[in-house]
Amino acid sequence: MQDRAQLAFTARVGFAEAMNAWAVAMQKMVNGADVKATLSNLASEIRSSM
């Protein structure tokens, strides 16, 4: 099963933009940004784009 398992996302409006914002936020946190504040800002950004 593990050899054939894969992630399959349902195409949604704004999904690509949300994933890009998520990737940017992850990079910020890896580089030392405050995790709670960064995730809060990310959530607000994603909500406002939907």
Overview of this protein structure:
By secondary structure, the protein is mainly alpha-helical. The protein is built from two helices and no strands. 0% of the residues are buried. The model has no long low-confidence stretch (mean pLDDT 90).
Main features:
2 helices, 50 residues, single chain
Report the β-strand fraction as a percent range: under 5%
Shape: flat
Classification by helices and strands: mainly alpha
Q: What oligomeric state do these chains adopt? A: single chain
Order of helices and strands: HH
Mean pLDDT reading: 90
The total of beta strands comes to: 0
Distance between the termini: 35 Å
SS element count, helices: 2
Uncertain residue ranges: none
Summarize the structure in short.
It is built from two helices and no strands. It is mainly alpha-helical and 50 residues long.
Give the helix/strand layout.
Layout: H1 15-30, H2 35-49
